[in-house]
Write a structure and sequence with these properties.
The protein has helices at 19-32, 54-71, 86-95, 100-104, 107-114, 124-138, 152-169, 213-221, 237-248, 252-263, 269-295, 298-327; strands at 6-11, 37-42, 78-80, 144-146, 178-180. It is mainly alpha-helical. A 3-stranded parallel beta sheet has the order 1-2-3. It has a two-stranded parallel sheet with strand order 4-5. The structure holds tryptophan.
Length: 334
């Protein structure tokens, strides 16, 4: 019996893994594995809420699985959401415990529905997205959810759903999950340090963890430093972001010496950039090597993940059985 507290988190399979994802989330997930029982999901059902291509979706799901394994996520902690269809089943039940008005007021829904394509199509899935996320969390009866501040509203909704369910069935069945906001660095785009590093803004706004050394060097070399509009005495956002990257990469000694140069007015930006590029290349090399080992055993790795998902699914099935009992639905004997 595993008495450790349970952590759940999830990530959508939407393509390249960049240093914003790595330093901001995945690196922390790797660390949490030492102290908690962790479940990490690749949430492909969520990836269908915005326009998508079926072939790319499946490819991206495997791609992300391999990438997560290469960063040090353990296979037994990983699952693929669509191989645990109980998530969708619990989502349906939760729909009936969710306020429609509250869903329409979610920030993410407002943002995403404003980005609808030319045809104006907005899926009901994008409205329902947070209910599926609540199901992801509560189906494993997770104690903690490590996420960024932007997910706070979704966690609040998750607790509202759990409470409403508990009240209606007259049992404190679901524990109310808490967010863990670990001190994670906020990595900005090197091309525009006023915005978060992200894929949606385009290629120059993110550094891919799997990019080759030259590409990483080039992107860091072209990072925006001084823009001339920073107030006297303050560090410009671009320079601060480069120091933040060094910190995230745990290149502490180099960072301190460069910071001292900065404060004495001696810092050459090219030295700072080179230090950042070398730090990232060091991390990328290690992750790329592990990825190459995994690529050499593709079939075994996929089988292993199917098995770990099957194992993790058992916990989800227990929850569904309890929920159906409590809600007055029928259970098939299995
Ligand atoms: N909405 C999350 C994000 O965009 C992804 C996600 C889906 C998630 N289900 C989750 C995160 C459950 C934590 C727990 O980052």
């Amino acid at each position: 019996m595993d008495n450790r507290k349970t952590v759940l988190s999830a990530i959508q399979p939407t393509g390249d893994m960049h240093y914003g994802n790595y330093f901001g989330a995945v690196k922390n997930w790797v660390r949490l594995q030492d102290s908690y029982q962790c479940f990490y999901g690749v949430v492909d059902y969520h990836a269908m809420t915005m326009p998508f291509n079926p072939k790319t979706l499946r490819e991206n799901t495997w791609e992300l699985i391999f990438n997560l394994l290469a960063t040090g996520i353990r296979p037994e902690n990983l699952f693929i959401q669509s191989l645990v269809p109980e998530h969708a089943e619990l989502c349906w039940v939760f729909n009936c415990f969710t306020s429609f008005g509250q869903l329409t007021r979610m920030t993410q829904f407002k943002d995403k529905s404003a980005q609808s394509g030319e045809d104006g199509f907005i899926s009901a899935g994008i409205l329902d997205y947070p209910v599926l996320q609540a199901a992801d969390i509560l189906i494993y009866r997770a104690d903690y959810v490590p996420v960024g501040k932007d997910q706070e509203q979704h966690l609040e909704l998750t607790r509202n759903i759990a409470e409403r369910f508990n009240n209606q069935v007259g049992k404190e069945y679901f524990v109310l999950p808490e967010t863990i906001y670990t001190e994670v660095p906020k990595v900005m785009s090197t091309a525009d340090p006023s915005r978060k590093m992200s894929k949606s803004a385009g290629e120059k706004h993110y550094i891919n963890v799997f990019a080759d050394d030259n590409r990483i060097r080039k992107q860091v070399r072209s990072a925006v430093t001084d823009t001339g509009d920073t107030p006297e005495g303050a560090m410009s956002p671009g320079v601060a972001n480069l120091f933040e990257l060094l910190k995230a990469a745990e290149h502490t000694a180099v960072r301190e010496s460069l910071l001292a140069d900065y404060h004495s007015g001696q810092l050459k930006y090219v030295d700072l950039k080179d230090a950042v590029a070398e730090a990232l290349i060091g991390i990328s090399t290690e992750i790329r090597n592990r990825r190459a080992d995994l690529n050499a055993h593709k079939k075994e790795v996929k089988d292993q993940i199917r098995q770990s998902t099957e194992q993790i699914r058992k916990r989800a099935q227990e929850t569904i059985r309890d929920v159906k009992d409590l809600a007055g639905l029928m259970n098939v004997k299995f």
